[in-house]
Hints:
The protein is α/β, with parallel strands linked by helices. It has helices at residues 21-41, 58-73, 99-108, 120-125, 133-146, 181-189, 217-228, 247-292, and strands at residues 7-9, 45-48, 82-86, 114-119, 154-156, 159-160, 171-172, 205-207. The protein has eight helices and eight strands; from the N terminus they run βαβαβαβααβββαβαα. Strand 2 (45-48), helix 2 (58-73) and strand 3 (82-86) form a beta-alpha-beta unit.
Amino acid sequence: MRLGPLVIHANYLINLASEQRMLQTRSIQAFHDEIVRAMALGADFLVVHPGARGEATTEQAISTIVESVKQASKRAPMGGLRILIENTAGMGTAVGARLEEVGEILAGLRNLPVGACLDTAHLFAAGYDIKSEGGLASTIGQIDGAIGLENVPVIHANDSKIPLGGRVDRHEHIGKGKIGAEAFARILRHPRFGTTAPEGVTGRAFVAETPIDDPGDDRRNVAMLWELAGLKEHAPEAEKGFSMLTAALQRKMLIQRKTEKRKVNAGTQRRTKKKVRTKKGGAKKSSAKKKRG
């Protein structure tokens, strides 16, 4: 049985919107390499962030993004691969926080096999209220108007550590963040976000990019998505201690946590010693004042 679709993500350092010619040239080459690798892997979708505009206007940046994607896709036969522009949370000068911006990029690339990948945490942080029933309906209408839901074959399903409109990209475990389990159940079961025609898109994929704080978090988040979608009986078991992380990555995370813990403990000890010295110093000054009196 074939597992799919295969969705891969381009390097986060790529900035297709850069106004700096050298960085733009390097980003175009890097994205071209990503396309070639995606084709070699037989991927169905290649997701990429639009980039940051710097001092340029949004209009200028969108034009640069369109030109960058066109240049990167030259001499790279796409076959069945489709490039997906991902919406952003709106941090700094990132392009793509507004659905209209993503729509304009796609319109400029109409002659290429492109579409959009929408991230739920990014939508929420950018100010789209997908938490409430009315807000979700309104957001779906805006997606349809700016992009077209038929052009969204992939959805990154992530909860958010950031409140509505916070414009910061911080993902959270499904149901544990500001969006919440109830809202995810509504999103996952909505016919317009479904995976079957005519209201949904056949083969649409939901991909989790949630944190891994403990071994097994990745599996538990996937199982939670299945449960909230009303498909618990089909969900993979979230075995205790199971993780999709390699043993090497687990060791690296363990070392990192121990290092962070030592730093926190060292900082606490320094603050405690400082307080003790301050108290002792205060007591001596007080005694000296009494003697002079």
